[in-house]
Amino acid sequence: MFKTEYIHRSSSTYTQGFPKMKTMSPPPFMFSFNDRFAYRTPPSIKASQVKIKLHQNRSQIMAELQKQLNRKQSKPEMRKSQVTLNSLLLTKRSTQVSLSQQERVQVLWDSVQAKLQQQGINPEDFYDLFTDLLKPTRYLMIDRYDMHLDIKYFRRLRGTLIQGLLSDGSIQNMICKLQQLKEHIFQKKNLYQQLRGIDGINKIIQSLIKYIREDITLCGFIQDYSQQEIQQYFVDIINDIIQPQEKIDKITQKITNFVNNNQINHIHYCLFKYIVYRVLLEREFDMKTIQTILKIIDWYKVVCIRQPGLRQLIGDDYNYFIGHLIYDKKNVEGQKKQIELLMDYIFNNYRRGIKYKDVQNMNLNINLIRKTALQFMNRYHPSHMLLEQFKQELDILGCPKYKPSNELVTRFTNQIMDQHSFTDLYKENDIDGPKLLQKELDFIMNNRSYFRYSELKLIHRPYNISNEKFDFYIMNFQASFKNGPLCDHLVERINSFREYIVSDNK
Question: What is the pTM of this model?
Answer without folding.
Answer: 0.72
